[in-house]
Amino acid sequence: MKDKEKIINSYYDILVQNAKKMETYSIKLKNDPRVYTSVPMIPHKFQDDEVKRFTLRILAPDDYAGLYERSIDEIEMLEKKKG
Questions:
Q1: Is the pTM of the predicted complex or chain greater than 0.90?
Q2: Are 70 and 52 in contact (CB under 8 A)?
Q3: Fewest 10 Å CB contacts: which of 6, 8, 19, 26?
Q4: How many CB atoms lie within 10 A of CB 71?
Q5: What pLDDT shows up at residue 61?
Q6: In what order do the strands lie in the sheet with 25-29?
Q7: DSSP letters of 12-81?
């Protein structure tokens, strides 16, 4: 399995589990300088294997707060927040 596929599968597993846990993560998306405080999740299985999308509930920065849908391969960094 390619490294990129391993990373995407790892993110997928985390996001599926987080749909139940609703834990907060720091997330950085490719081509975006900001690091968001968010609750990322996949509430259901991907409907189209070619377009792997997830729901991103951004909590901070406040100017970007809200719900967004992004492609899982846009994730550059995903770290669980402590505390």
A1: no
A2: no
A3: 6
A4: 13
A5: 97
A6: 66-71, 53-60, 35-41, 25-29, 75-80
A7: HHHHHHHHHH---EEEEETT---EEEEEEE-SS--S-TTS-EEEEEEEESGGG-EEEEEEGGGEEEEEEP
**Cα 15 to Cα 11, 62, 63, 67, distances in angstroms:** 6, 22, 24, 15
Residue at token pair 């996001």? 15
pLDDT at residue 2, as a whole number: 78
Question: Which residue in this structure is represented by tokens 């999740």?
Answer: 41
Residue type, 29: L
**Weakly modelled stretches of the chain, pLDDT under 70:** 1, 43-51, 83
Instruction: Give the type of residue at 75.
Output: I
Amino acid at 39: V
pLDDT tens per residue across span 60-70: 999 999 999 99
